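Notebook entry, structure prediction.
Reason for the run: the old model in the group folder had no record of what sequence produced it. Starting over properly, with the input documented here first.
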Amino acid sequence: MDSETLRAWLALLRTPGLGPARGRALLERWGDPRAILNAGRAAWRAAGVPEETCHALAEPDWRAVDTDLQWLAAPRRALIPFGDPRYPARLAEIPGAPLALFALGDTELLALPQLAIVGARAASRQGEENAQAFAAELARRGLTITSGLAQGIDAAAHRGALQAEGCTVAVCGNGLDRVYPARNRELAHAIAEHGLLVSEFPTGTPPLAENFPRRNRLISGLALGVLVVEAARESGSLITARLAAEQGREVFAIPGSIHNPLARGCHALIREGAKLVETVDDILAELAPLLPARAAPESAAPRTAPTIADPLQARVLEALGFETVALDHLVARLGLPVEQVSAALSALELEGWVAAGPGDTFTRLQRG
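New structure, fully documented this time:
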């Protein structure tokens, strides 16, 4: 793309009131962004463009465009406009596909089969471990893991893919010249180096609340399907899952305890027709027709579950079961002194068997 065409694209993307649908209509009418900018007010009005947008097209914010150009000048940064060979084919199919994507990292990942993993920001430790383990195994089996760089499940999914030396794509609700949330800065830098960050928002765009539903439609639009690991009844993750269903993507959900409020969103999705997931093969079997051969389900050799040598710790873990249990309830179940139960729980937590929660509660973690 020559420099003048790039400048015209950036000016178009920064035009207030020119959303994806209207922008696509103008591109179909005039063919390229330079022709759109040169058409003039009378032609824009004739095409149904509102007066305020006509004014913005007539006087582009060239200073902001120069800021975008400065950002794009660095290595591993790109603008991928609609119609570019690098623009993801699956994303192009959805209603309201963005006019362009800003990208930081390996743009070739956009052509690979992707699975989105989303869930609660305030996730449980078990939820984060599930997200990380599923992401790692799915990445090893050939899927690119896509998520939204949020705290909790999103971050765990990205980390799982990176730790497996697989591929991951982070879709951001802000300009790529900043990291949100800031505590994920190190993770974002790792994704930029080994994966890809994308956004439809130009540089300088803050992480406004209204940006995230738009981000969510890209997460589902890029992927073959969406896996929800933990989600409350009303959450952005459920919005992403329902957008995925509307876009013709597969929807998967991991069930949880009936006492866990973060499982209720997943249970609602399953009641609505999402596929219940216990292993990665539940996902791969559903997606098999769309996947390369190496990602197909495989019959793994049975694993030997790790055991606990200490009899008291084994007894406490058995009494804990697979629900979140308060310490005083566990003491009552066992009929043992609270000091003994607390000591056993501390040892189990150090060994990664249980996780402590708020209010002296404990949850068993899956191992083996």
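Summary: Residues 107-295 form a domain with the Rossmann fold fold (CATH 3.40.50.450).
The old model has been moved to the deprecated folder.
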